[in-house]
Amino acid sequence: MTEVEVCKELTPARSAGNVFRVTTESPAGPPTARQEPSERTHHGDTVTDEFAWLMNKEDPATTAYLEAENAWTETATAHLAGLREKLFQEIKGRTQETDLSVPSRKGGYWYYTRTEEGKQYGIQCRVPVRPGETGPPSGDERPGEQVLLDGNVLAEGKEFFALGTFDVSPDGNWLAYSTDFEGDERFTLRVKDLRTGEVLADEIPDTFYGSAWSADGSVLFYITVDEAWRPDRVHRHVVGEPFREDVVVHHEADERFWVGVELTRSEKFIVIDAQSKITSEVRVIPADTPAADPVLIAGRQQGVEYQIEHHGHRFLILHNRDAEDFALAYTSVDAPGEWVELVAHQPGTRLESVDAFARHIVISLRKDGLTGLRVMCDGSTDAYDMEFPEPLYSVGLSGNPEYDTASVRISYTSLVVPDSVYDVDLVTRTMTLRKRKPVLGGYDPADYEQFREWAAAPDGTRIPVSIVARKGVGRDGSAPAVLYGYGSYEHSIDPYFSIARLSLLDRGVVFAIAHVRGGGEMGRRWYEDGKMLAKKNTFTDFVACAEALIRNRWTSADRLVARGGSAGGLLMGAVANLAPESFAGIVAEVPFVDPLTSILDPSLPLTVTEWEEWGNPLESPEVYAYMKSYSPYENVAKLRYSKILAVTSLNDTRVLYHEPAKWIARLRAVVPEGEFLLKTEMGAGHAGPSGRYDSWKEEAFVLAWILDTIGAVDV
């Protein structure tokens, strides 16, 4: 990026009216946020936060400051406008805009989503299954198509649109769906009669993801949230009656736990699960008697997680009781109690989920840093693992609403193979490719190479790194590179294909994923060694991966950009302080960069539920001191920082906008000569802009900044 002229003189304003110093129409320099000292004291430690006032979303001064930052970001990146447009057109030009997902059969219909050129959102549809039809319809063969929901119609006149619940009743007559027009994930639930197209008059606000229908479609179960945005209640609604008369079936009083609800694939049971970060509890209701009281499968035991699947006369139970990487057991449907072992615990093979079908069980697992699928035949101990040809890939079940079937649908992708959908015959083990995501413009996977390398962490742990590059990219240290990371919640960043990423690769940029501890790539222990009082391993692992890329001549420090979002944004903020010399630039998207302030405030959304991930600094002086030692905001110092681009959304309820806003304000105050940019989406949430074209434009903005930072604009 060309050097921008920043204001060298820091003269904080004290009056409320003098919020910052900036020329709004054509700013000559970045805005300077006022400093208004605010103190907090915990465990004898008093901290002064001079930018706490930015937490007041309703204060016009806050909005004005965010808009001034946006104006400065636009000015500082104005020279990239042409590149942004070019990148947007590249993404758009490689995408088949009018497209159709592979239809999935459920009962007497094929269900699918289609997109149309020029339209932002998907269209949910179905067609009747024709007599003798054994495979999904293809191409334009969609006689009798019924549009269930058109996101473009729902979003008309709205700046933002997101669909939460989309749930068709087992008889195919009713659709429960919920919408969010702000980006704050507060959904309004409605019910539509699919026979007439009528949307019932009653609607309910502030609902959460997830719903479940009774077997006959007469009753709908749904979830609402408390004031801290925690899903805590499951309600029972009789279709056609007012929502205000709905009964609360389950209320979760423990603030550490979230509730969920779903219908089993067999359509025999409503499942109500309550989960904290480390503990689970499950109840079931027979789907044919929805007014029955929930039956407890097993009471909560601190540190024990389990999930269930209905399979004939038994409930399958995937659990970690005396099994760190999880084991599979079962218990009786008629009298849930003793757990009988079905698949023993095998250290190093993490069992992640189980799916039951009439005559088969499919286990999703990971081993040696790769995902996998294991098939078990009902009534037999015979099992086999599906095999795949590439050294790096991601595979998982995809959809599969039917219970009585001998085939399953899987999704497959890698760093070079676009998203692919296969149907797998579980008896013959044959795989049929139903669709591979089209990539227009002559894309050839053979033009690219993928690699797995290993970095050495400071404690000697080997950290896997997945790498993709266009063939012919030199290993002499001259290539620009992007290193992506996350590393929290046992969430794994497995190898995946990206159309937008091609705009980097085709300019000679190397793309790498650091599979750092705190994620789940290498099993449950990998997660445990990157959370709570071991969280710093996540940050030092990432730096070790960057150093390995540099040492092995994939790139050099002055041509390397780090990128991460949400909890991965915390990672970005931490490494910005820890190793600024290792990166030319850092992209932090919706970044959790003020974690101590947030986790100290139990009134904020998600805080109490997060204590089992980060620790409770309110109660523990040790946790408080540890979090303070790595918090990006707390540790801003007079360093020579990398260039930083922070991207956030005003209505984000997961990582609140003020965390990156405060972070950038403090960075600029402490290091006024630094190059720090803040871009706030003023009408979006955690996932950013909702429409696909708007999302592509946002990605083009970030990619242009990256290419400029690493000097690859004209490559």
Automatic annotation (TrEMBL):
It comes from the Bacteria. One of its GO terms (molecular function) is serine-type endopeptidase activity. GO terms for biological process: proteolysis. Belongs to the peptidase S9A family. Residues 30-435 form the Peptidase S9A N-terminal domain. Keywords: Hydrolase, Protease, Serine protease. This is Oligopeptidase B. Residues 496-711 form the Peptidase S9 prolyl oligopeptidase catalytic domain. Pfam families: Peptidase_S9 (PF00326), Peptidase_S9_N (PF02897). Coiled coil: none annotated. Residues 36-45 have a biased composition (Basic and acidic residues). InterPro entries: AB_hydrolase_fold, Pept_S9A_N, Peptidase_S9_cat, Peptidase_S9A, Serine_Peptidase_S9A. Residues 17-45 are annotated as: Disordered.
